[in-house]
Structures are given as structure tokens and as C-alpha cells.
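Lecture notes, unit on protein representations.

Consider one protein chain, 659 amino acids long.
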Amino acid sequence: MTIKVTFPDGAARDYARGTTGTTVVEGISKSLAKKTVAMRWNGVLSDLSDALEEDGKIEFVTRDSGSKDVLELIRHDTAHVLAEAVQELWPGTQVTIGPVIENGFYYDFKRDVPFSEEDFPVIEKKMAEIIDRGAAFTKEIWTRDQAKDFFRTKGEAFKVELVDAIPADQSLKMYKQGQWIDLCRGPHMRTVKDVGTAFKLTKVAGAYWRGDSNNPVLSRIYGTAFATKEELDAYLHMMEEAEKRDHRKIGQEMDLYHFQPEAQGSVFWHPKGYVLYNQMEAYIRRRLNSSGYVEVKTPQLMSSKFWEASGHWGKYRENMFVVPDEVPGTEEEGPVLSGKGDLMALKPMNCPAHIQIFNQGIKSYRDLPLRMAEFGCCHRNEAHGALHGLMRVRQMTQDDAHIFCREDQIQSETEHFVHLLYSVYGHMGFENVVIKLATRPEKFGGTIERWDAAEKALGDALRATGYDFEIAEGEGAFYAPKLEFHLKDAIGRSWQVGTLQLDYVLPERLDATYVAEDGSRQYVVMLHRAILGSLERFIGMMIESYAGKMPMWLAPTQVVVATIVSEADDYAEKLVKQLKAAGIRAELDARNEKINYKVREHSVGKVPLMFVVGKREAEEGTVSVRRLGAEGQKVEPFMDALVALMAEATAPDLKAKAA
């Protein structure tokens, strides 16, 4: 009995049923076989040793391809090598799970003494020894009883629990590498030798088993791995840079904001930080106003009936702050709440509220598109452990807007939005943008037919803009597919910021209609969109990308006038008044400190410019200009320096308008 195997170039050959991928690739080319570590069989990443039992398409995964497939395989296999090394070094340690994650992998262990980074050198040495042995990965299919008996005998209680959790209709796979064996879905490369030497353990952390605080605490070891040493070195350098650029550290040095436990995930903006925040908001407000948006303001707290009608109550409630609509009890002995009040919720997004505004009065097809914007303060009940400075907060403000349009306006509105978005990102200093079309998730609202139509409409509209995009399978919002806009920062990291979501579902659920040209009532199409996304997160990203050295128009303090001697104090004070009158954010530093001390302090605070003045400058009407990060200084007339600074401090959209 034969099967037909089709290759990527369209050629096809017949093979005996049960032929392995290894046999197929070895028959094509010995050199290709040496490089091939796995295969895609009918689109599914698989072990090269798997038997081919039916007609299908085959693609070979080579170790030098640089593909996402091979990177995941290398990291997956490295996690297995890590687990083997730990159990060789510390017998009795229990292994649990070791998945691939973004930029690396981790493995969770149960050990009486938690691991520390001081253990890394000996673990990495043992991993290198295991890789040198070159043991093959071999797969066996076991029964549940067989696997449970095996793990019980080894004292691996967590693995027994994992076996019980595997659905009955799924086969139970065990992978061996030499004498070590693990429960795993696979696939794996041919041998541990294929892992290579470009791996590094990065950090340790505590983690609850299965993420449940009622379960035991495990010791989690994180690591990363790449196909080449050069890629690993580049990544480690990027991580070193990222640590230096941590927005939490720089934010403290610049005195921008702080967090405290009494308001988990909410930002306390300091005066300088709020200047930066307001500059960002003012810029976006100007761009929206000039692009035909109307701005609205909607309530923070709304009845649960709105969220039930929109579908969020059933699918998103765990991320909402729910508030009872009742007066709290004031008696010391009595309960604070009776539990009888109707439920309300702090809004996690603005969409249902914007529809309430749209639904006031009758809308005609002539009124569309209606672009409705709001700098809406939203609350999302993120887990405490997930919070991360400005990047993951519970209270956020979005540059949110909803475009209400007709079906025939989807393409033009998408194009209008995408061009605006690219212009904004360019002004912020980001030129490298990747667009992803996120499609229907496992949990979704509406019908499959509606989703198919929405995905097609959004994809067609994006193609018309001329920008390339990728498909992010299953990553859409529960009510709509979406476009995600990912930015590359100064050190090569990718950030998902902007979004455009095409929604047929919510207008139908909340009865948002307009009168069509033929007099009929039609549901409006709703485009949910944001460019910066959360202002908090975007500011955090900007701080890290610029390492705190913000563009002049965004800098909280644009210039410090610093004196060398007390005789220059009056002159310096006069300059600061002139600078402020010209709209420059200026500060005076007339402290009785050495000038080098002042320069160092303001450099840490990331002040982009200093005007240093002494007795001579006061007599001549000049300033010594020092720029952050530059060597030396330049003496020039104050008015010349002021004119140059005013030009540099003008926001890019205002510069473009004046040109």
C-alpha cells in the first residue's frame, strides 16, 4: 500500500505506507538530511521519525532555517535537557512542566531548597555534558496506568496529576533521551546534540503549581536558547540594555511617578511625569481633532445591564471591578454591605458607553462615518502578580475611539486610520511597524458567518492600504477580529500598541442602527481603534526606547539654567522668566554647588539641555549650552539659543502645520 507525499515545490512521490520522515529526507539528499531536525506533515509540526500513514504534504524543518518552528524546537529541547541536568545533580527533585515562552523557556521544579542564580554555572555545565552525549529523542506511546505507575515509583506526584489531566481521547506520549524520560506532547528534534551550545539560564522565580495560590510553591528556572551563539549574544546584549532602560528605574530617577500597595496597579503621577503625560495626550487630541473625530466623555461606573447586553458580563466579568449600588452600612458591628444592591461595574473599556451616545436620536446614512473619541479612564482587574510598572496596570487611560460607519465605508475608514497611525508613530520616532490580523478566538460572540465576513472585510481593507500583514490565528477579541500594530523599539524589542477591531456584533447586541438611503433600518458597523493604546503603557515604552532621553517636545524639563557663581543668579533668573514666557519648560538651579555636581544630577534626571551661566555670560548676554549625552559645550548669545530651543521644542505635528 502506497501513499502520495507532496513537497513544497508541488512535486509528489509515492512511498510505502508507514515510511518515516527520516527515510523521505534521506532519500532526497544526504546533506539536507543532516540539517533537517523535524518536519511539518499536513501543516502539523511533527517528529521526523513519525510514520506517514496517509497522503499529505511535507515540509522539512532545518536547523539553520531561522524559522519560528526551529527556534521553538531548540527551546523545547533545551528545557528537557535542563530538567535532566537538574535531576542528575539533585536526585529527588521533582519535575513538573517546562514550556516554551516568548524569548525562551522555563521549567518548574519541586525541591526543598529553592534554586538560586548561583546554581546556574553548575547546571549549565551539566547541560553541556548531556548535549555532548548526543542521545536521540525517541517517542513511545504508553497507557495511563503504565505512565502513572512509572511516575509513582519515581516519586513524581506532579507528573501523575498531569497524566490524569490529559483527555481520554488523546494519546499519552513519553519521550526518552538516553536514560531520562519525560511526559511530553512533543515534537522534538532528532537528538539532544541538535540543541547546540547557544543557551543560557537567565533567572529564577517562585511559582504556584498550576498558578493556584492554594497549591505548593515551585522553583522556576528561566532560560533562553538560539540556533547560533551570535543570536544568543545579541539577545543577551539586548537584555542588558533593557535592564538599564527599565522604565521603573528611570521613572524614579526622573521623578515621574510612583506606585504603592494601597492602590495596586494605579499610577501616582508626579508633576514632571504629568507634564509628559499631558504632552502626549495633547498631541493625540490635536491629531484626532484634525482627523475629523469628535470627543466625548462617558461615566466611569455603569449598571451591569449594559455589560450583560454587550456580552462582556458573561465573557469578561473576571477582569472587571464589580461595585454594588447601595449605601454602605455605618454601624461598627453591622456589615458594610447588605449584598442586596444591584450590581454596577467600573468600565474596562468605553465601547458600550459610546453606543449609548450614538443611539441618542436618529442617525442617517449621511451622518456616517461618525468618529467618536474619548480619553477614557478604564479599570481592569489584573492579578497582582501580573502587574508591571506602567506596562501592566489596573487603571489606564486609552486614546480610544470608535468609528461608526456603513459597510461601504470600511475600506476608506481603515485606510484613513492606518495612515494616521503611521504618521503618529513616525512622530514618536518609530518607523518599524508590523501589522497582524488577529482572527476568531476559541471564545467568541456572534456567528461564524459574521466572523468570516468581518475577517474578510478587514483583510481586504488592509490590503488596499498597501501595507503587508501577518495572520495571528485565534487572537482576536471575543466580539471581533482586529488589526494589531507592533512597534520595534531602539533595542529591537517588539511592542503591541495600536489596534483596529471590526465589529458587527456589538451594534446588533445594543441596537445601534441608522436610516439607510432606501429608508430601511440598518445596523451600523463599528470600528474600535486606538493608536497609542494605554497612555501609561506607551509612555513606559517610550521611556525604555529612549532610555529616558525623551524628544525635546516631550521632555518634562526642557532646559535647566545653572549658575557657576552667585554673581550670575539674577541673570539666570531673568533667563528662566524669558524661557517660560516663550513656552519653554525651564528650571533654575542657583544652588551653592559645584557646576559638575549640577551637571551630573541633571544628567541623571535626563534633562536634555543645560544653559550654564557665570559672571562672563551675565556680562555678555550669552549662555554655555550643554546637551545631554554630548561632549563639551558651546557658548552663544542667549537669544540665538532661545530661538533654536523653541524650534526644537515644537511638537512635530505643529511643525508640520507651520511648514
